[in-house]
Amino acid sequence: MTAPTGPTASTTTSTTPTASTASTPDVDVLHYSAFTTRPDGGNPAGVVLDASAVADDDAAMTAIAARVGYSETAFITERDEAARRYRLRYFSPLAEVAFCGHATIATAVALAERDGPGELVFDTASGEIRVETTADGDGPPRATLTSVPTRSRPADPGTELEPALAALGWSADDLDPALPPHVAFAGNDHLVLAAATRERLADLDYDFDALGAVMRRRGWTTVHLVWCETAEGAGDGSTEKLAFHARDPFPVGGVVEDPATGAAAAAFGGYLRVLGLADGPTRVRIRQGEDMGRPSDLLLDVTPDDPRSRVSGQAVPIPRTGRGTDPEAGPCTTPRTA
């Protein structure tokens, strides 16, 4: 996802979605949870496989996204079915956003379930995103997105790092000196901060308004907070050196935390590449959402000679409960509390 460009984000009341499809007068919205094999895990997204009726109506798509209540809803506004190429737009409940990783994975899985696995091409505001979908036996399809070229640079100590740490309630001693603060990009910008301990990462209690203000000034989508642990070999030809736990505050979207952030994972791949931590084909496992009760699993593949990142995950429909076609409105993420 990327930061909304509309007015200052407002908050909504969190409720659990209760249906897999919401009907509007013009479109049907599928409900999927991405980076998980369970509907109660991962990050939910709305998916509109045919948005032709509202393709030229940004206000209508924003209203649909607000009604769904998730951090993002993806809309296919143009299509070439023979080429499996689609124009994909993303809307938060507030405004259009340039790119959203978890909604991309959810859309790709929905198309794979409808049309069969294979390669898909999404034209987004951030650029062309290719997604390979495969069937994993009896489990849900897996989707692997290839990002736009990534980049990463050190965060400015005075204008970026200091105000972000103050808003988080962290000190410089809370950071891992082996993983310096950076601003990383893979379609949008994310501040990357590595916690020195798992306990520091778990204790997330920040100033919502202050961090949101810093992020809006700097144009950041999320603050990608990570803690590193060593992983075993992947056993599939890649070198799995690293596993991370991650948390992503998202106050610019009106919620405290995102449970699975594919866009931030892709940017993080660029960060690892710039730091030289991917000196060969490297697979990184990212566990997110655990501290908020929505565990999510993201696989990140990085190679030193390719500036693009590959982010993989599964997605599952959120089932109906028999109480109608509309889900209860509410974000998939932790809402801001009063």
TrEMBL record:
Region called Disordered, residue ranges: 1-24, 131-158, 288-338
Q: Which Gene3D superfamilies match?
A: Diaminopimelate Epimerase, Chain A, domain 1
Q: Could you list this entry's UniProt keywords, alphabetically sorted.
A: Isomerase
Which superkingdom?
A: Bacteria
User: Does Isomerase appear among the keywords?
Assistant: yes
InterPro entries given for it?
Phenazine_PhzF-like (IPR003719)
> What family is this?
Belongs to the PhzF family.
Name of this protein = PhzF family phenazine biosynthesis protein
Provide the species name. Streptomyces rugosispiralis
